[in-house]
Request: fold
Amino acid sequence: MKRAALLLLLALRLPAETVDVGVFTLFRPTELRIESAGTPLVLADGAISVTLEGRQSAEIHLSSNRSVIHVGARDGSPADFILSIPGKIRRRFQGSLTIQPGAHYLRAIVSMDLETAVASVVAAESRPGTPFEALKAQALVARSYYAASPARHDRFEYCDTTHCQFLREPPSANSPAARAAIETRGLVLSYRGKIFPALYSASCGGETRALAEPGFGYPYFAVHCDYCRRHRQGVVEGHQLGLCQRGAAGMAAQGASAREILDHYYPSVTIEQASPATLARLH
Reply:
C-alpha cells in the first residue's frame, strides 16, 4: 500500500451515525487474530501497513505490538472482518477496528454504523422466537440508549456486555432482528422533548420498579406486567426498570404492537424520528 493511500486510510472519517463499541472486554485479551471476511483488509499503525487477502490472517500480541493499529477496507471505509481470541472466541463484525495496547491487555474497539449496532443488540438480547413487534420495541429502546447515553468507558463509548448493551455479531440481513432495526430506523423514545437512554431488563417478576432519581432523563414508573404475573411471578432478571423483555414478548404474542408495548412500559413518552444531525449531536 502506498504512503498516500495509507494517509487516506487514517484521515477518512466514519459517517456521523456511528458508535464505538469495545468488544471482548470481559476477556482482557493479550493476543487477537484478525481475518478478512471476504474483501481485503488493511492493517495500519501509522508507519507501516499490511494487507490481508483471501484466507490470510494476522495476529496481534501485546508483548510485541505497542502501536495503535487501525483496520479497515483499502479505501478507508468500514469492512467485514473476523476477530478472535485464539482458543476462546471468534466473531464477525462490520465496521472499522482499532486495537489499542494497554498496560495489561489489548483493547479492541469496533466503530460501527448505529443501525448495525441496534440490529446486533436486538439479536443478542432477544430469545429465539420472540414476536416481531417485541423485536421492534427492543430496537427502539436499544437505539434510544445508544443515541442518548453518555460514553460509559474512557477509551470507547460502550462495551459489548450488559454493563452497556449485550452485543454479538451482526445478524443476517433477512433475519427478524435486522428487519426490526430497518423498520424502526431512526425512531427513538423521547420524554418532554428530549431523547433519553432507555433502560430495560429481562424479567421484572410481575412489576417494574419506579425510579425518580435525577440523571436518567426519564422518571421510571412502577408498571404491572401481566405476563410475568402469570408466568414468572417473583422471578427477576435485571434491574426491573423500563421494558420487561419477557413481558414485551408476551404482549406481542397477544397482538400488541411495538408502540403499545412501549406505551405500557414507558408511560408519557413519545416516539419520534430523529434526524441524523440530531443523533450526531447527542454525543
Q: What stands out?
A: The two ends are 34 Å apart (CA to CA).
